[in-house]
Amino acid sequence: MSALKINFMVFTSAEGCCQDVGKSLTRPSELVMTRSFKMSRRSVLGGLTGLAAVSAVPLVTSKAFASETQVEAPHIHSCADWGARPVGDMPVVNQAPNKIICHHTAFPNTDDHSLEYAFQNSREIQDLHIDQNGWPDSGQHFTNSQGGHITEGRFGSLGALQDGTYMIQGAHVVGQNSEAIGIENDGSYHDGAQPSEAQWNSLINLCAYICAQYGIPSSEIYGHMDFNETQCPGVIHERLPELREAVQGVLDG
Ligand SMILES: [Zn+2]
Predict the structure, then answer these.
(1) Structure letter (DSSP) for residue 97
(2) 3-class secondary structure, 183
(3) Which pLDDT belongs to residue 17?
(4) Got the DSSP string for 190-234?
(5) In angstroms, what is the span from residue 140 Cα to ligand 1's centroid?
(6) Taking burial as the number of CB atoms within 10 A of a residue's CB, which of 142, 169, 206, 252 is the most buried?
(7) How close is the Cα of 234 to the center of ligand 1, in Å?
(8) What fold is seen in the domain 2-252?
(9) Residue 114 confidence class, pLDDT cut points 50, 70, 90
């Protein structure tokens, strides 16, 4: 069992998504500042980052987006919830992202839709990205399990999303890591398999919440293969028009 998992991990690194995005981390310095600066600012504003699980909160939307837009926040499990390894401060990009990019993990498909499986999966992704890819933390901002459980990926991404005015720099798509929120959908979708209904629905709700919080139009949801040479995210890429339409439906209420 463990040997099988190791094989998939090797496959993921060599052929799956995110295999080479570490090269793209250099960004315009004026956009990047340390998280400690943001923490100081947020503490002045009341320390809202401690709220890992929220529901139906009033949204702070960008000036460019409909200020009336409200989307029920999905339950997003924080790094602390799933037992993430401690990491240092992640770089902060002091502006909202302009798009969402979907991935698949290329990990094995499973019928185990439990929360514990989702948490274990988050830990395995973090281990892979730190130990094998040499990154400071998970590359993606959020992870969507096959059971539809959403977890925070790179540390600080949840607080940034709840704030709505800045993002944590990711490591998921070459050339887009300071502009795009990355969502890892667990599973392998390049070879005929479809995401479960639970996973698909949670992807819709997560995308809608991200769009509302950051003022991202539903048309700005993409797949990894739109930017890099990869099979990621498989059939999810083919279903992007359906996803965008469903997200717009949520935004329209
Ligand atoms: Zn990918």
Answers:
(1) -
(2) strand
(3) 53
(4) SSS----HHHHHHHHHHHHHHHHHHT--GGGEEEGGGTSSS-TTT
(5) 9
(6) 142
(7) 9
(8) Lysozyme-like (3.40.80)
(9) very high
Band (pLDDT 50/70/90 cuts) for residue 83 is: very high
Confidence band (pLDDT; 50, 70, 90) for 214? very high
Using the 8-state DSSP alphabet, how is residue 147 labeled? Answer: T
Q: What is the pLDDT of residues 152-211, one digit of tens each?
A: 999 999 999 999 999 999 999 999 999 999 999 999 999 999 999 999 999 999 999 999
Q: In what order do the strands lie in the sheet with 167-168?
A: 32-33, 92-93, 167-168
CA of 155 to the centre of ligand 1 (A): 19
The encoded tokens of residue 208 equal: 């809608």
Domain residue ranges in the chain:
2-252
Average pLDDT over residues 116-144: 98
How, if at all, do strands 76-77 and 142-144 pair?
Answer: unpaired
CA of 233 to the centre of ligand 1 (A): 6
Kindly give the distance from the C-alpha atom of residue 185 to the centroid of ligand 1, in angstroms, as a whole number.
9
Report the separation in Å between the CA atom of 57 and the middle of ligand 1, taken as the mean of its atom positions.
30
